[in-house]
Amino acid sequence: MEYFDLYNETAQKIGKQVPRGTKLLNGEYHLVVNVWIRNEKGEYLIQQRNKLTDIIPFMWATTAGAVVAGDTSLKTALKETLEEIGVVLIKENLKHVKRYFINDDFGNYIMDIYLIEQNVLLNELLLNKLEVKKCKYASMKEIITMIKNKTFWDYIKISQDNNYFELIEKSWYNENLIYRRRFWK
User: Fold this and answer.
1) What is the CA radius of gyration of the chain?
2) What is the band of 181 on the pLDDT scale with cuts at 50, 70, 90?
């Protein structure tokens, strides 16, 4: 059984752990991560979930996972990507861009958003078939269409941020012009 560390409204641990599935009290949060992997063409590596126990089963999403007790957000971003799709991320290139506090029907959680620009070949993925049915690349425009068609997790609704995808797209350009020149040589 997995256990989660709990956090307060300022993202400080409160010294309490609970098993997965525990209904949290007001002001208690567990930590989750979302990892957006983008290739040099500006496409995002997305995955179709493959289990009925997911919050939204068989939907397309980005790589994500809950932070288990004792782990950090960054460690979980690296670990979930490796466990779900077999990709080793370059830790130094992983960029934390936003933290959301979510209170919804699925529970209270803190959602950390990570971005990384790394070319990943689809034929080299090692999918955890219990977690992931398949992967593909999609442009942000295609992802928005998938949300409208209810085939991709609606991160705008989840984050309660109408600018969620604008944040993702703009985050590449703030400091990445220099980074891109170095990385894609």
Assistant:
1) 16
2) very low
Token digits of residue 111: 């959602």
pLDDT of 179 over the 90 cut: no
CA-nearest of 89, 81, 71, 94 to 128 is 81
- pTM of this structure: 0.89
Give me the residues paired with residue 64 across strands: 34
Q: Give the residue extent of every domain in the chain.
A: 3-183
Bridge partners of 113? Answer: 34, 98
Q: Rounded to an integer, what distance in angstroms lies between the CA atom of residue 95 and that of residue 91?
A: 9
CATH among 3.50.50.60, 3.90.79.10, 3.30.230.10, 2.40.10.10 for 3-183: 3.90.79.10
pLDDT for residue 112 is more than 80: yes
Q: Which residues contact 122 (CB under 8 A, 6 or more apart)?
A: 135, 136, 137
